[in-house]
Structure formats: C-alpha cells, structure tokens
Amino acid sequence: MKQHLGALALVVSDYDEAIAWYTRALRFEVIEDTDLGGGKRWVLLAPPGSHETRLLLALAQGNEQASRIGNQTGGRVFLFLHTDDFQRDWHRMRAAGVRFREDPREESYGTVAVFEDLYGNAWDLLEMKK
Questions:
Q1: Which contiguous run of DSSP H or E holds residue 21?
Q2: pLDDT for 8-31, tens place per residue?
Q3: Which residue of 67, 90, 93, 110 pairs with 98 in a disulfide if CB–CB is 3.0 to 4.6 A?
C-alpha cells in the first residue's frame, strides 16, 4: 500500500492576496486555480520541486472560519517547509519580508527557524540533517 497527504487546507481571507504572498515570499507555484462558482475556487499551491503534498487555500466562510485565519492551531507550528539549503532560503525569505519569530537554531534533527505567513500562522523552515 502507498499513501500520502494530497493537500492541507489553509483558511484565508482572500485568494488573490494569499496567492500573491505565497508565490512571492515563499516562491510557491500555483498548481491549480479553478473557479467553482459562488465565489469559491480550488486553489492548490506547492513549494518548488514538490510533487505530492499541496497547500489548498480555503476561503473562510462565515465568522467561525474567519476567526481561525492566522491561528488554525492555537499558535502552534503546523506547517513544516523542508529545504535543501536553509541559509539560502532563510536569507531570501527575510529579504522578501517574511517575519521570523526567532533566529535559526541547530537541533538534533537539523537547522530550523519559525516564521509566520501573511496571516500569522506559524511555520518551520527546516533543513534536515543528512
């Protein structure tokens, strides 16, 4: 048996604003952007070189979902962006205006730093040890 996570939904307030930020700041690629009618779209993004897991941008519907924008997990890191060159991406992301909550640190598993997306969701930028 073979399985993988196809997509993770991220609640956003505006599709185009989110697409612009993720493609500029993180250099994600738009894999699909399909109009579903009624103001809904199926928007899938992926980091450069990624072939399986996608980020699904989900437009918040109603006050309950809107209240979760930027805090889907109570402030915990829930998205882990793996890289093959931490220093390259850390410098490039900072130059693009990405807010890091901390300086890079070495852990037993690799080099890591927590950053925020445009809504304040916490992510790890992570280069695993070989």
A1: helix 15-25
A2: 999 999 999 999 999 999 999 999
A3: 93
Positions of the chain with pLDDT under 70? none
In a domain, 66, yes or no: no
Are 92 and 114 in a shared domain?
A: yes
**Could you give the CA distance from residue 7 to residue 43 in angstroms, rounded to a whole number?**
11
pLDDT on residue 79? 96
The whole-number pLDDT of residue 67 equals 94
Distance of CA 56 to the CA centre of its chain: 10
CATH of the domain at 27: 3.10.180.10
Count other Cβ atoms within 10 Å, centred on residue 35. Answer: 10
Q: Is the pTM of this model over 0.85?
A: yes
DSSP string, 63-112: HHHHTTTT-TTTT---EEEE-S-HHHHHHHHHHTTPEESS--EEETTEEE
